[in-house]
Write a structure and sequence with these properties.
The N and C termini lie far apart (57 Å). Strands 1-2-3-4-8-7-6-5 form an eight-stranded antiparallel β-sheet, covered by helices on one side. The chain has three helices and eight strands; from the N terminus they run H-H-E-E-E-E-H-E-E-E-E. It is α+β, with helices and mostly antiparallel strands. The chain is globular.
Length: 163
């Protein structure tokens, strides 16, 4: 019994000491995946593939729920590889401030406090609420624009040293 307790304690120590996996995509997707890889991975969750014949393609998959909020999901490919994931609240947010607060709270539960946060108020009229998290190879942006949209955008972070 004593050996078992030591073994369990050792496993727990290793599990909590191991570094967290890098955030290099959204969910099971990874930046740089091809359309074929994404369609295969998502399987019957794929609703539609929008190919504009240019550099950007979009793969729409089934809506997801985060808390009580339903979100439409688009996988966005640039130059044939996954570069962004858009999670958008369907329609126009009825209460933008409440929508922002709810989504921000859910993102804080997962990623901690945002790295940047602000409001855009040009000419005295509220244009948008925005918060950003910088996680490994991914930037998460929460953007709520009254009378327009509410979305969470995951995109591949740019290494500023390489620019």
């Amino acid at each position: 019994m004593k050996r078992l307790n030591i073994f369990i304690a050792l496993l727990l120590t290793i599990a909590f000491a191991a570094p967290a996996a890098a955030l290099d995509g959204w969910g099971v997707t990874r930046w740089g995946m091809s359309k074929e890889e994404l369609v295969s991975l998502m399987g019957d969750k794929v609703i539609e593939i929008k190919d504009n014949g240019k550099f950007v393609e979009r793969i729409l998959i089934e809506s997801i729920s985060i808390g009580a909020t339903s979100l439409d999901v688009e996988l966005i490919l640039t130059d044939n590889v996954l570069s962004e994931v858009s999670l958008q609240v369907p329609g126009v947010p009825a209460n933008p401030k409440s929508t922002y607060k709810t989504l921000k709270g859910l993102l804080i539960q997962k990623y901690g406090q945002p790295d940047t946060e602000g409001m855009s108020i040009p000419g005295g009229e509220l244009l948008s609420y925005e918060a950003k998290w910088f996680e490994d190879a991914t930037t998460i942006t929460l953007l709520v624009m009254p009378r327009i949209l509410a979305l969470i955008l995951y995109d591949q972070s740019q290494n500023l040293d390489e620019l």
